[in-house]
Amino acid sequence: MAEQPKKPTGGAYGQFLSENRAALSQECAGKPITAVTKLAGERFKALGEADKAQFQEKFQKAMEQYKKDMEAFLAAGGEKKAPKRKAKEEEENGKKRQKKDPDAPKKPVGGSFGCFLAANRATFQKACQGKPASEISKMAGEQWKKLSAEEKKPFDDEYETKKTAYAEAKKTYSLPEAETPSKKTSKGKESPKKDRKAPEKNTTRAAKGKGATSKCPEAGIELAETVAKAADKAGCKSQLIQLLSRQDILGSGKSQDEVLKALQDNNGLLHPAKRALLGA
């Protein structure tokens, strides 16, 4: 099974950084890694609009290719994994994802077309040798459309058989006892809910505590007094600190005022504000 395609990130700046990382790293030899992104941000900011537009176009093409590769990956039976950040958040909230049992029934995917693709994969791979993986599913899709209903029927029957077998297997399958989720601690006592939520409360209190100053040593960020006051007034100081702590925002060369404005324009939402700043 091929690896899941990697989604391009960072917008036009991300493409610029990717193309120039080697040269920038050489210029910053012996300096902290943040020096690379900082220098990249300065260089990118100094580019003309035409040059930036070229990198934005490259990013859009990379996204289009990613979508094609992802469609091919899923059509080939691949399963889309959750982003690492989401998995980390789930773990921090006490929602560690349960390990998959290799003996668990496997749900059939891809429908009748998936069965057709599996049966003819070797032929398509040979015909598309040297081309992107997306070409295989593209060729298979074109061939599939040409088939008559009678020619598709064996694959329809095969998929229905797999679905029935999966449903029956699920009825008799049970999760191994060692992997069954437990709500008890090592001492056999149920863990109080308030204990699981304690870190979240502490984090909120640290970010929004009374009498907050312009200095935020716990995040390594020092806000300008005017920016700190404006962020407090808008109720988005913690979000501002989070954005300013990100390497991609740091490397973009955006000022604290620009980051705050992006947050205010997007109602304090982190991801929309980040997209507005990076053009992703």
Q: Could you characterize what this model shows?
A:
This protein is mainly α. Helices cover 64% and strands 1% of the residues. The chain contains 13 helices and two strands. Strand 1 and strand 2 form a beta hairpin. Helix 1 packs across helix 3, helix 5 crosses helix 7 and helix 10 crosses helix 12. The radius of gyration is 25 Å and the shape is elongated.
Short summary of the structure?
This protein has helices at 11-27, 34-46, 49-75, 84-92, 111-127, 134-146, 149-172, 193-208, 225-234, 237-244, 247-252, 256-265, 270-278, and strands spanning 215-216, 221-222.
Write the layout of secondary structure elements.
Elements: H1 11-27, H2 34-46, H3 49-75, H4 84-92, H5 111-127, H6 134-146, H7 149-172, H8 193-208, E1 215-216, E2 221-222, H9 225-234, H10 237-244, H11 247-252, H12 256-265, H13 270-278
Antiparallel strand pairs: 1-2
Helix pairs in contact: 1-2, 1-3, 3-6, 5-6, 5-7, 9-12, 10-12, 12-13
How is the main sheet built? 2 strands, antiparallel
Our measurement of the CA-to-CA distance between the termini, rounded to an integer number of angstroms, reads 30 Å
The H/E string reads HHHHHHHHEEHHHHH
Described by the principal axes of the CA atoms, the overall outline is elongated
Spans of at least 5 consecutive residues whose pLDDT stays below 50 are: 182-188, 197-213
